[in-house]
Amino acid sequence: MNVDPHNQKKKVGHRSPTSRRLFNTYWLKLWNGSPPGAVLLSFAAVTGLLMAIPIVYVVWESLFAGADRWLRLLDTRIPQLLWNTLSLTVMVTLFAVAIGVSLAWLVNRTSLPGRKMWQWLLALPLVIPPYVGAVTYIIIFGPRGWLWRYWKQEEWLQQRFGDYPIDVYTFAGIFFVLTMFTYPYVYLIAGASLRKMNRNFEEVARAQGMTTGQVFWRVNLPFLRPAIGAGAILVALYVLSDFGAIAMMRYTTFTAAIYYQMGSYDNVSATVLSVVLILLTLIILWIEARTRKKQKYYQTTNSYHEPEILSLGKWKWPAFFFVAGVFTISVLLPVIVLVYWTVIGVGGGVLDAKFWGYAWNSLKVSGLAALFCMLLALPVVYLRSRYPSKVSHFIEKLSYAGYALPGVIVALGIIYLFNQYIPVLYNTFYLIAIAFVVRFLPQAMQSTDASLSLISPRIDEAARSLGQPPWKVMFTVIIPSILPGVLAGGALVFVSSIKELPATLLLRPPGFDTLAVRIWVETSEATYYTAAPAALLIVLVSALPLRYLLKKY
Questions:
Q1: Which architecture characterizes domain 44-62+348-513 according to CATH?
Q2: pLDDT for 262-298, tens place per residue?
Q3: Which pTM was predicted?
Q4: CA 519, 523, 527 angle in degrees (round to 5)?
């Protein structure tokens, strides 16, 4: 059959404009008639894809682990790891919620002595990494710790109670440490909700004869449920992802098991365990999302009145000692221990050139990560805010991929990716910074989005009406207006990065140690006077964004 090439060319040329018109129509509809520029969309899309690649790669590798390896791990390791991880997550979350809500209620709604002072003091555990808290409690209560030495010196204690009764290397030990250093997530968010609660609803309930307790359970608690859910999900995700405190307290969860598998060069088993942990994380996020849909409560009245401060009466001093006790356990004791050993370390010449080299390494990778997070967050947030569509929301979700997952899984994906495809960067400190970007980019995005939401879209429209492309509008008009929020997000990323331990341990090149790594190494060797100065410096640096957090909440 002979085909006229000119006729064929005409038919193809005839179809092309029609297809192009259909595509343009669909593209305009997808973006609600206002599509973004190619430059802005490209930057945002590339950012989202890069954030998701390490996780996708880990899942992909696990699919080729083989049925035998999956079955062996399912029969041996995974059931025990599931029990250890889920039991710890559930217990820490429950007690953190109970402590956080109790403290928020006492500080914000009662006549607690010094309530204004306690409002920020009780948030201080946020600046102490749990693995630092674990170190301090090992020093106090551990074998050959301060309390152990006192016990051995006092014969009457041994005669009456026998051998030293405290074993920190148990479920109770790690449960106690994680609870004490994660309750502020619930405390801050619940406190914010309590301060915004309208007193009118409580007055109506009291007019119907309800007691203070009934008002709390039937009126206050329903309004608090979304805040409690938000705090609980933060606590649960942190417990799932924690490695430092868990490893120091010699408890084994999925994160610790993945790290140890990497240490024994069994990367395939590590990917299998990582997939199970990813599934656990997704299940928790799904449960939280389903629960949140069923717990929407709105204050519809326009006549807002500040909440009433309730008199504690005879419960004033018991409440005060409860609050002071939590503060002492979670802040005062750890700081005292760190200062004590830091003084000894400084006297022993710990603050030498090596120490400041570790500090510089921490500042270098954390600063690099903060800079890149600020730059990468802008196009993603601007696209989602100014050009809402399924595409922009999908790109935003991709950018959150690393935030809900442990640093050890992110590091695992980065190792596979760069070892096989980009070996020029393998075994360099740049991989640590990249891991921090994947883990903490959403922190910069959240802060940037909060500032951008205060800028009217009409400013963008006015600039675009003058012929400016979207990417240029973002850099010349929007960024100067939201710069404080962008810098605040960068500060949050910096502080989170300087505390990150598992990703740094797995990705650091030979001879490249950070403050977090030195705490891990020196604590493992029980040389606390060399670990304390690094831990205290991390705490002091981490305190910088606390004022921002308190303003936000």
A1: Orthogonal Bundle (1.10)
A2: 777 777 788 888 888 888 888 887 776 676 655 554 4
A3: 0.82
A4: 110
